[in-house]
User: What shape does this take?
Amino acid sequence: EGYGWIEIRVSGQNYWVDKDAQGIEGLVRLLNQQVEALMPTSEDEGKVVSVAYLEDKGRCVGYCVQELQVDELGTYFTARSPDGSLPALESKQPTLPDQWDYLNQQLLDLPWDEWGPELGCPGCSDKGLARLSVSVDGTLRQVAFDLLSPPDALHEVVNLLQEMMVLAGEGVIPIQKAD
Assistant: This one.
């Protein structure tokens, strides 16, 4: 049927399986059904389907890369070290309806067409970088920016996503004590 693979993430590690590999036909059929169920319908038109927010704090030791993935049903948090020296940490919790509604409202009003893929110089001078990815009507919109100085138009959204990230990471990320 052509080339392709299925990417599976387990405990912070990605695995790729040839989609035509023998013995996984049932898995492929189930995944295709799940993907079709997630495809936007006319009811979803003009709505955010998913949001991903990543913070990379630059040169640091510990869980310096944190990612939040949010959809209407769940908020998924991952923290990892940039060099892979620490095991990835993950948590999942339900998305609160008022958070989801607020994100939808704020993200749809952003000037996506005026922005390129980057604003400023994300990751330069070790200021860290942030990346916001939003799926709307099957279209992925992405922008990267300086972690310490998000654009004014993103300020409220970034604040909410950072709050959600802190809550999702509570009890997951060990507190490191200075010596």
Observations:
- The radius of gyration is 18 Å.
- The chain has a mean pLDDT of 82.
- The helical segments are 25-38, 97-108, 155-169.
- The CA atoms of residues 106 and 157 lie 7 Å apart.
